[in-house]
Amino acid sequence: MSKGKLGKVLYSLSPPYVFFISPIPSQATMSELQEVSITEEKPLLPGKTLEDVKEAELAAQTLLDAGQTHSVETPFGSITFTVFGIPKPKRPAILTYHDVGLNYKTCFKPLFDTEDMQEIIKNFVRVHVEAPGMEEGAPVFPLGYQYPSLDQLADMIPFILQFLNFSTIVGFGVGAGAYVLSRYALSHPDQVEGLVLVNLDSSAKGWMDWAAHKLTGLTSSVSDMILEHLFSQEELSGSSELVQQYRNIIVHAPNLENIELFWNSFNNRRDLHFDRRGDTNLRCPVMLVVGDQAPYEDAVMADSGGQPQLTQPVKLTEALKYFLQGMGYMASSCMTRLSRSRTSSLTSNRLSRDDGRPRASSRTSDSGSIPAESPGQSMEVSC
């Protein structure tokens, strides 16, 4: 075993790595010590060159870029999700939830693939959740299968975070997904640092809506009703390339029976019962986004259709960066001011966390969808 000398310590540089404490040697002993050439008998990566290590790192990065898909079992069935990136210290994960008729790719991929979104991607790990039976290649549920309610879909999210060992999220939901994440934030306020809600409909269907839905179901197909949910009549009449693309996706979906079950759960949702002066409040910063041609609002987001994450990804990305900055993240992000902005309400900030990180609060909400006296920030975006 080769030994070196360091003061009063004789040490071994070859396995096993044993340290010897020795008294100061005598002059005679010193004369017996000679320099020796020490070589590593068992390299850390035997047979691996620097090029091999670089290739392994590239393969690992490619795996992260491609995403890792997982499924976990819950009391309400299995739930599938795909993770991109690695967790960042002291930062929440961005967790997305798609709308009816879509999956995470058709709902969010055009947005997250834009060049402007790459800065956000580098700063946050993201989790794309897919409602049961909505993932690509999902088998059709058997006849009589009881699809989870939207409340139960929200109750599945803790099992995802437990599996990933994530403590907090920034939720990003569209349509039905916005409702699911709102419900989750109400029941787990300590686990939600912020919400981005696109085309949120927080109310249950009234009797008139229910009757209209039943009558429409007699004359329209499920795919037609879902398209009317996703896009405005103007967009459907114009039959743009985007509308044609998504019509083709939904009409020819191999899991259309599953989509219909999700659609029925959405139409049977409960009212979220936001209470401006009660306990039913979203207690985190919230960014509301509604397309100016969406079936839910007359005009909130300029130049955008019913799906702003698809039609105006650049403007939505910039608004998202401002929102994350307001939460205390990405302070060094470089951005230009949103162009052609019509409406944007952002109120005073305050420190609302024990760890001292700034979180915003609001006292007003123009839309009425989010409680006016919520401790969290309410931000309406127009691009």
Automatic annotation (TrEMBL):
Pfam families: Ndr (PF03096). Gene3D superfamilies: alpha/beta hydrolase. Residues 341-383 are annotated as: Disordered. Residues 341-350 have a biased composition (Low complexity). Belongs to the NDRG family. This is NDRG family member 2. It comes from Monodelphis domestica. The lineage of its organism: Eukaryota, Metazoa, Chordata, Craniata, Vertebrata.
